[in-house]
Amino acid sequence: MARYIGPVCRLCRREGMKLFLKGERCYTEKCAIEKRNLPPGQHGKARRAKLAGYGLQLREKQKVKRIYGVLENQFRRYFEVAERQRGITGETLLQLLERRLDNVVYRLGFSTSRAQGRQLVRHGHFLVNGRKVDIPSFSVKAGDVVTVRASSAKNTTIAHAQEEVKGRGVPEWLALDSDKLSGRIVSLPTREQINLPVQEQLIVELYSK
Questions:
Q1: Residue 105 in domain
Q2: For residues 145 and 49, what is the distance between their CA atoms, to the nearest angstrom?
Q3: Does 106 reside within a domain?
Q4: Is 176 within the bounds of a domain?
């Protein structure tokens, strides 16, 4: 699956807020938002245009895509799946994105960012219910157990991530066992447990036109 490989700090600057795309760097004074909270490009110093209607809807969609690291076609497929399911479409969409294996690895603290989590999954460092899974978009379900492979237990990247994210905490829908380097999906995440500054209803309105 294709992915964005350009500079990620400009994505945060475009949205005018931290999307936490570079892990621990986002928590330091080196963060691009801390240094220059201006849109990228030669016209970045111009005043931000006031958005309304379509502009607001588009920015919310772009924000969520960039947070989870998915491109347009894949994001639209997630929306179509959410639309077919029972419940509130916007909340179901966020739930589907949260259930991605690369996001779960990030939420459990085995990586400092979702992009790093994606790379670790692709390199085969994790097991789901005892089986190796190297597909970042793999969707976990309640009761699944995600474990660091025995051969990867001393991986310096994972060890470093665990140290860096100690104070970040783990969402209520996950249970972490630091000693065994594993996490269990206690339940599917609710909207209240998905701590993201997004208005998912605007995305639903955008795709419903």
A1: yes
A2: 46
A3: yes
A4: yes
Phi-psi bin for 129: left (phi > 0), alpha (psi -120 to 50), beta?
A: left
Residue 9 falls inside a structural domain: no
The crossing angle, in degrees rounded to 10, of helices 200-207 and 89-98 is 110
Between vectors from CA 15 to CA 209 and to CA 28, what angle results, nearest 5°? Answer: 150
* In contact, 146 and 182? CB cutoff 8 Å: yes
Distance (Å, whole) CA 147 – CA 177: 9
Q: What is the pLDDT of residues 144-181, one digit of tens each?
A: 999 999 999 899 999 988 887 777 788 999 999 988 99
Residue 175 belongs to what domain range? 100-188
**Confidence grade of residue 202 (pLDDT, cut at 50, 70, 90):** very high
Q: Give Cα separations from 97 to 3, 33, 65, 145, 200 (angstroms).
A: 15, 25, 9, 18, 12
The model carries a pTM of 0.82
Tell me the two tokens of residue 144: 């699944």
